[in-house]
Amino acid sequence: MKNKHYIIIASFLLIVPNLFAQTNSKSFIGLSGGISAPVGNYAKADAGTFGNWNNTSGFAKTGYTIGAEGAWFFLPNIGIGGSINYTDHGALNSKDVNTLATSYQEAFDVDQAAVSTSGRYQSLNVMAGPYLSLPYKKFNFEVRAMAGILKSFSTPEVDIVLTDASINYPFSQKSSTASAFGWQTGIGLRYALTEKFSLTIRGDYFHSNGITIENTNRNNSAGRLVTNQPMSWINGSMGIAYSIGR
Amino acid sequence: MLQSKTKKILIGIFLAAVMIGSCNKKESAVAPNISNEALTTVVLALKNTNAPYDSDTATWQQLLGANGVPLPIDTSKAVLNLHANCLYTAQVLIYDKTQNPPTDVSAEILQRENYHLFFFQPTPVSPSNFFVSDTTTSIPGTTINPTGPYLNLTVKRTDLDTNNPPMQVGLSDNFITGTASSGHLRLVLRHQPNAKNGTYFPGSSDLDVTYRVSIY
Predict the structure, then answer these.
(1) Residue at B133 is within a domain
(2) What is residue A145's predicted lDDT score, i.e. its pLDDT?
(3) φ, ψ at A185 (rounded to 5°)
(4) Do A88 and B21 touch (CB under 8 A)?
């Protein structure tokens, strides 16, 4: 059964490019930008319920991505490529902060919980991996799978002050600048505007198991506590590519 | 020509991205407590480990009248009669009798054990039996009687919470009696949100009640 799958995949890689390939794919470099939509736990705006707190929901918002990419084709349709992308997934809004404040008040059974946030999700990812490019007339249909490093520039900081019997108990979830492994896969289309320039349209899915989040002054195991923030998103981007070589 | 246009577009995208990214609006919110239980009734339920038929309960109670006004404290049943030189297992049971049916608040305290801690102070207490630490039940500030006679009772917590490392709670305890004596037992429940460290001082008191104790 496993062998059957390998044969199908190998056939796809060998035969399908030949159906399209009247010419070799051109190596290229390019710039792109577009929408980046968080998915999964990263996108969830949920603090959980008493005894079942959600420690991985990210409250991330749809934002944008800008970056550069390139690929070098060492075979007619198969090459290796890389990308570097800056991504912003926004900040927590007033509804999110209310959700968190209510959850901490309930978790610690205090007179009140005050939550304030600052900062945004901002990160850079540097990825590399194989490209499959299928040229057809002025179009190049591309599939890529890459892996690399996610570097966080900032995550929202969350400062909590519990107040009970007029005594304050402050603690914080700090902004993270940690790095983590990530992978990305996607499809794209390049349309040749001129001999050298092409318009690119891409859709990519990115996932990282998460970056480390530091917390200060958390003394007791109670309430939502984020120590690792998984990150997943879907990018839809457009850009310009410049063909290099012949 | 196209290169120039492309440059302008890309510079525009980059500037827009930087401007959006630099928007760093702060948000804040305050969530008040909507409701709170009334801890009207505190029961100590003891069982002699060597003689299971030897059990005793003591009940401290303060119910609420009309409009939530507290009624006088009822200590008529807040009395423990224990045999000398015995080991008793004890459970602290707390109820909110303003609810119908009464709510078992001790079950809720068990759910919230990571920031609750019970203290037990027998009095009169001798200097040699008064230890303030992160594992003892003594209440700081208790008047120590240098001469006696003393209430010969020692209380040790036997349950642990789920903090890391675990700390004592005090819903389950051992009461160890010495020779015949009498006095009082003060029970205090400390609420220590994100501040529990085993000692008495962080937090505030949810409960502060006293029982009469007779060891015979």
Answers:
(1) yes
(2) 97
(3) -140, 150
(4) yes
Parallel, antiparallel, or unpaired for β A122-136 and A78-88? antiparallel
- Chain B contacts in chain A segment 16-35 (CB below 8 A): 31, 33
Question: What's the CA gap between B130 and B121, in Å, rounded?
Answer: 9
User: Residue B15 domain-assigned?
Assistant: no
Distance CA B23, CA A98 (A): 20
Chain B residues near residue A100 by CB distance under 8 angstroms: 29
> In chain B, how many domains are there?
1
Which pTM was predicted?
0.87
Q: Are A24 and A17 in contact (CB under 8 A)?
A: no
Domain extent for A164 = 2-244
Edge-first strand listing for the sheet containing A167-173: A215-216, A167-173, A157-164, A112-118, B27-32
- Nearest CB to B2; choose among A93, A197, A220: A197
The torsion of the CA quartet A145, A148, A153, A158, rounded to 10 degrees, works out to 80
Report the DSSP beta bridge partners of residue A52.
A49
Residues of B in contact with A112 (CB under 8 A): 30-33
B193 shares contact with chain A (CB less than 8 Å): yes
Q: Which amino acid is at A87?
A: T
CATH value at residue A184? 2.40.160.20
In a domain, B28, yes or no: no
B-chain residue closest to A119, CA distance: B24
Say if the Cβ atoms of A66 and B13 lie within 8 Å.
Answer: yes
Structural domains of chain A, count: 1
- Is B18 part of any domain? no
Domain carrying residue B93: 41-215
* CA–CA distance, A150 with A153 (Å, rounded to integer): 10
pLDDT in tens, A179-213: 999 999 999 999 999 999 999 999 999 999 999 99
